[in-house]
Phosphoribosylformylglycinamidine synthase subunit PurQ
Amino acid sequence: MRVGIVTFPGSNCDHDVYHVVKHACGADARYVWHKDRLPEKLDAVVVPGGFSYGDYLRCGALARFSPVMEDVAAFANAGGPVLGICNGFQILCEAGLLPGVLMRNASLKFICRDVTLKVDGQETPVTRGLVGRTLTMPVAHAEGNYFADAETLDRLEGEGRVVFRYVGGAPNGAARDIAGIAAGPRRNVVGLMPHPERAAEAILGRDDGKRLFESLLAA
């Protein structure tokens, strides 16, 4: 299993994802610099968290123009599994691979704490065997307030593409307590604001997040 981890100027969770994929899960992980093309024969792509391009203009708005994103889009459109975490979720929305937008938190404050998620909707490459379960992992963001128009939200709900939902209410004001969604021909593009890579080993206090990576690798 070969997983490409896309790295932008300002990414700061790429090493965490690499560690989980390679050392916690035992798969082949490789960094992909934003100016390069995706390597051939990748089985999955992860767009990690951080502050790509310093979040200038708008979070994810500049990263979506990086050369590698053309390949990420082609990979996704061909059915390849793509996971966007936090800033990666923002980038995938800006690139049009996921609908909606991530706005400033309703509190206008940076949020960094554990949250409980319900795995919802239809199965995706990262939620195989997990639908209906609750998982705990941290969020760390200032722009995690998911927004889309009512028609889009209804369509996401109706198609089972709201795949993560905050339990007890969204800490950031996200519409319908949405923490993560899916798109693509096989619901193969998934974005979520919480950080599974920061809750993927027992030494960190919990390993709920590892289940998402194990699902991705099994897919």
